[in-house]
Amino acid sequence: MELDERKKKILQAVIRNYLETGEPVGSRTISKYTDLNLSSATIRNEMADLEEMGYIFQPHTSAGRIPSDKGYRLYVDAMMEEKEREVVEMRDMLVERQDKMETLLKQMARVLAQNTQYATMISAPQTKRSKLKFIQLSRVDAGQILAVIVIQGNVIKNNILSVEEELDDETLLKLNILLNTYLNGLSIDEINLAMIAVMKQQAGIHSAIVSEVIDAVAEAIRAEEDLEIYTSGTNNIFRYPELADQQKASELINTFEEKQLLGELLQEAHTQGEETGIQVYIGAETQVQSMKDCSVVTATYELGGGMKGTIGIVGPKRMDYDKVVGTLRAIQTQLDELYGK
Amino acid sequence: MELDERKKKILQAVIRNYLETGEPVGSRTISKYTDLNLSSATIRNEMADLEEMGYIFQPHTSAGRIPSDKGYRLYVDAMMEEKEREVVEMRDMLVERQDKMETLLKQMARVLAQNTQYATMISAPQTKRSKLKFIQLSRVDAGQILAVIVIQGNVIKNNILSVEEELDDETLLKLNILLNTYLNGLSIDEINLAMIAVMKQQAGIHSAIVSEVIDAVAEAIRAEEDLEIYTSGTNNIFRYPELADQQKASELINTFEEKQLLGELLQEAHTQGEETGIQVYIGAETQVQSMKDCSVVTATYELGGGMKGTIGIVGPKRMDYDKVVGTLRAIQTQLDELYGK
DNA sequence: TGTTAGCACTCCCCTTAAATGAGTGCTAAT
DNA sequence: ATTAGCACTCATTTAAGGGGAGTGCTAACA
Q: Measured between CA atoms, how close is A139 to chain B, in angstroms?
């Protein structure tokens, strides 16, 4: 059987209607809703075909039709290539200069949630490929050294080190110069054992501190790698009856709080993002069990220096794909303009 | 009417039983449950009295009794003064040294949630009265200065400042000395305009930078003041049927995500905490609308240097007050031992 | 005077049954 | 190819009934 133009139109009408109402949609509705001027009986025939082809299905005998994952997929794909959406307002959202990535991301998650009425998540940029920009040791207290580590993109990590020996200013200065000379501008995988050995040797009796700093650097990177995720609008779940029953809501909320799975999800979206960087996962496509009744739209953004992060929007399968994709596009554009290269 | 010993015992039995089951408890149950050896009829009479006195009530005619807020209050008060709970294990929770307050708090919230099966929230210590410990300016890039601000208790804030003039190392060193000399050891409200004027004068052409740093300090403090709140275990709400219906769950989850109200709640608990620092709010006592069916137990902890924070545990009114108070006590003790003075 | 047994009564809740109605599949006519 | 018509299905709603847990009250008992 073949998916002719009329079938497409009907399918689209079914999906549209279902997106609006959340209720299974019957033939009579379609017959009036579209400009096809077909009777409900004809629609019924076509819908039977569409069901056979797997685009829609009945939740139970003699109920209206609901789009299947396959149906959504078709709809989304069609929509994606068709529309190059208008850039939404949202310009004011990013106007203020941010020193802090964290604040920016939190805010972004919140705005998105507010805007779309879905749950949102956003992963911080990953610094894997970033270069070390600056290291500074300072004596804060007797026996306490503060190590400040700045990574490309102005991601800053602090680390308090405890030392036994008393360090005078001169020694500290030397160590600072040593560390910066060797490590500055290197990315993580460029720091090797040989280099560390040389540095330790040059540090003489203070080699222990060098070790600690290196550890701190490694830890800072690692901390950045098991990436931070910010979420917002999880309670929007309750807006959609098909997700709001106790069982599902509980699982979803849990998933959102634990963030572990979200991380993997975003990670995957991030790595396999294609040209546009926008990806749509429908139902089981996410691999996350608790989200099998949801759809997820993700967008990868870049902040220069190879740092990439991912935004995800989670809603019911009948989410307004159109709007969501548009919104994400707009944000991408904004971020690119501000930080992109 | 008077609350004699037997009435107390019966009331306690009713509450205990209700805590366990979550169901209204009838006279027959009590008659068997307690060691009073009274028939259900007698219990009925007593329960009628207790109801008249406002300690318990029936959700509907001919149902068992449920403790009222007043009833809970009595129970909790009695329990609080009676028990000086055993210090729970939980020792291992805090063993690792933490450089980062944030990590510690998050972890703590999580452990608590896990342990109690309720939702938890924890506010970061407030630095209002804290003293400035250390300031360091470093050149990170051409035109970019990193200001690191350390506050008592090793709370560290970073701030990137943009500068137009090129600063050589010597100037930076001078500025560092200047700033530290003047500001070191001062608490926020001890920094006044006169002092700033003097510093600016001494900084000469670089007075602009001094201004910026001062701003950064102020901002760092302010950021710390509209306090961070970490939550965990919000999905535990779903464990308790009386909170899990769509309406209530949605509101609660929202409250927990927005954190605004939680902040006020913790704030209040913090300020009016009495001797022990542990406080119990039952039902409407919290002032937070969405929590009118919950109880909240809060504990204020101190981390030295006048920095105080508050932990809160939110559960159904029938929460296991005993265990919760015990757990919080234990944590308080631990924190005191580790950081307290 | 306090305690208990007995009994009628209340009311939630669960189950069952019937009514409703939206929607389908099929057939025959156009 | 399209449509009208009809029988049929089945989730959902509504009503009714039974069960049962629990109460309040009264009368009897120690």
A: 9
Contact A303, A122 (CB under 8 A): no
Question: Which chain A residues in 152-191 lie under 8 Å from chain B, judged by CB atoms?
Answer: 154, 156, 158-160
Could you say which of A133, A138, A150 has the minimum Cβ distance to residue B136? A138
Cβ-count burial of B82 within 10 angstroms (0-12 exposed, 13-18 middle, 19+ buried)? exposed
User: Nearest nucleotide by C1' from A39 CA?
Assistant: D3
CB pairs under 8 A between A and B: 80
Quick check: B176 CB within 7 A of strand D?
Answer: no
- Specify the 3-state DSSP secondary structure of B306: coil
Per-residue pLDDT of chain A (341 residues; tens, 9 = 90+): 788 999 999 999 999 899 888 889 999 999 988 888 899 999 999 999 999 999 999 988 888 999 999 999 999 888 776 654 333 333 333 333 334 667 778 888 998 999 899 999 999 876 656 678 889 898 887 777 888 888 776 677 787 777 778 888 888 888 999 999 988 888 777 888 888 888 889 888 888 888 888 888 877 766 666 678 999 999 999 888 888 888 888 999 999 998 989 999 998 888 876 667 889 999 999 999 999 999 999 998 876 656 678 999 999 999 999 899 888 888 887 777 766 54
Task: Answer whether A134 touches B (CB < 8 Å).
Answer: yes
B58 is near strand D: CB distance < 7 Å: yes
Q: Which backbone phi and psi does A16 adopt, to 5 degrees?
A: -50, -50
CA distance A283 to A71: 11
- Which class for A243: exposed (0-12), middle (13-18), buried (19 or more C-beta within 10 A)? buried
Q: The pTM is what?
A: 0.79
